[in-house]
Amino acid sequence: MIVAISISPTGGDETGGVSDSVARAVKVIRDSGLPCETNAMFTNIEGEWDEIMAVVKQAVDVVAETSPRVGLVLKADIRPGFTGQLAAKVDRVEAVLTDEG
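Structure for MTH1187 family thiamine-binding protein, as requested:
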C-alpha cells in the first residue's frame, strides 16, 4: 500500500511556519527504512499496513512532543500484491504523456 500523510502542529513559529515540526516527523519516516518521498504537501510511504501505521503513529508522537494538538491528513492506496509503486505509478502516467506528445 501507499499512504500519503501530512502531519502538522496546531501552532507554528512567529511567521506561522511549521518546518521544524514537519522535519522531525519526516525524519522518523525516513529512519523507518520504508520507501518514501516528501513533496511540498505530503510524505508518501510504501509498505504493509501495520508497518506504515506504526511509523505514522511515531511521526505524530514526535510532533506531539512540542505541540498540544496535532493535525493528520492520511490518504491510502491499498492494492495487495503490488510493490515499487511509488515510482511505477508515476512512470505509467509519464509514459502516457510521452505517447501523447
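The two ends are 31 Å apart (CA to CA).
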